[in-house]
Amino acid sequence: MTSRIYTTLRNPIELRKDLLKANIEIIELMEDLEGIRELRTNKHNTFLFMKAYIKEIHSSISRLRLKFPHLEFDEEDELKKEAEKIDVEFEGYSKDSNEIDKLEKELFVLREKLREMDQF
To answer: Predicted confidence band at 27 (pLDDT cuts at 50, 70, 90)?
Structure first.
């Protein structure tokens, strides 16, 4: 036969509450852990999809580059010189527009002065 030992507990209701609270906290921690696991799997799947899309983009770029005509070194220099000429022409145009802006500002100032004179 087995012997049984009986003990008395002080505040058995509080002890029961403490055990239940500890169990609730453990269950909440396990739920949080499960949520973290789900996030990890989602992150892993997302990275796999992104990796596949990046590979597809790189292959598309390489196919596009193959379709472009190959230029000789001299042709590239000529294209750069033409681009510089276009930049110079654009800068000259922008200088004219700056002069126009200055004239418009002066005209605005003169009109404001006329309005002030009409008010008196």
So the answer is: very high
